[in-house]
Every structure is written in C-alpha cells, then in structure tokens.
Design brief:
With 97 residues, this protein is α+β, with helices and mostly antiparallel strands. It is built from 3 helices and 5 strands. The chain has a single domain, classed as HU Protein, Chain A (Irregular), CATH 4.10.520. The strands form 2 sheets. It has a 3-stranded antiparallel beta sheet with strand order 1-2-5. A hairpin with a 3-residue loop joins β1 and β2. The longest helix is centred in the first third of the chain and has 20 residues.
Length: 97
C-alpha cells in the first residue's frame, strides 16, 4: 500500500477530505521521525513501538566481487508490533491460506 492509498482509505473511513488526511499522515510521519531523531521512542498501545536500534560494525562480503568490506556501526529505526497486532496478522494470514 502506498501513502496515497493509505490517505484514500483513511479519508473514506473518517469522512475527512484527502487534503486534511494527507496533512495528518504527514504530521504523524514527521513527528515519529523527529522523536526518533531526538532519541525518544514512540509507543502506540495495541499497535507497536518505533525505536532506535544500534547495529555494530561488521565485515561483509560484496556478492558480485566477493571482496570483503567493512561496514561502520550505525543506528537504525525499527518497528516492533504489539502482541495484539501480531495475533491479528497471524490469524488473517492463516485464513487466506
């Protein structure tokens, strides 16, 4: 699902205009990015949590040239879904099989 499709679905479900809905979606994404940039986490009960995770430096191999290369340490944003969210996705996926 693209951001435009998300905006369409939310606008249809809430009765807001697409412009208003797009502003809300953009505001949410900006707020999450700013919180993570500041070192905070964002927890949404029943949905999940956005956090920053440290990745240690490591040695990797370029699959095309087989050359070894060093990858610096870095911090990456991660999303951890709540147990409720995981259960819903699991049940839905099992029904589709």
């Amino acid at each position: 699902m693209t951001k435009a499709e998300l905006v369409d679905r939310i606008a249809t479900g809430t009765g807001l205009t697409k412009i208003e809905t797009e502003a809300v979606v953009e505001g949410f994404m900006t707020t999450v990015m700013q919180a993570l940039e500041a070192g905070d986490s964002v927890e949404l009960r029943g949905f999940g949590a956005f956090r920053i995770q440290h990745r240690a430096a490591r040695t990797a191999r370029n699959p095309q040239t087989q050359e070894l290369m060093e990858i610096d340490e870095r911090y990456v944003p991660v999303f951890r879904p709540s147990q409720e969210f995981r259960d819903i996705v699991d049940a839905s996926a099992k029904e589709r099989q």
